[in-house]
Known about the structure:
Number of helices: 2
Low-confidence stretches: none
Shape: elongated
Order of helices and strands: HH
Distance between the termini: 69 Å
Structural class: mainly alpha
Helix content: over 70%
Largest sheet: none
Number of domains: 1
Amino acid sequence: xxxxxxxxxxxxxxxxxxxxxxxxxxxxxxxxxxxxxxxxxxxxxxxxxxxxxxxxxxxxxxxxxxxxxxx
Length: 71
C-alpha cells in the first residue's frame, strides 16, 4: 500500500467516525427535547407537590453544616 492510499483511508475513517458521532448527538438532542415537551405536558396531569414551609428545613441544613464545619 502506498502512503497516499493509507492517508486516504485514514481520512475516510475519520470523517465517517465524526459523522456517526454528530448524528448520534443530533438524535440525542432531539430525544431530550421530545422528553422535555412530554414532561411539560404531563405536568398538567401530575403536578408536583410543593412543601409549605422550607424555612425550617433550611435552618436545619444550615445548623448541620455549621456543626460539621466546627469539627
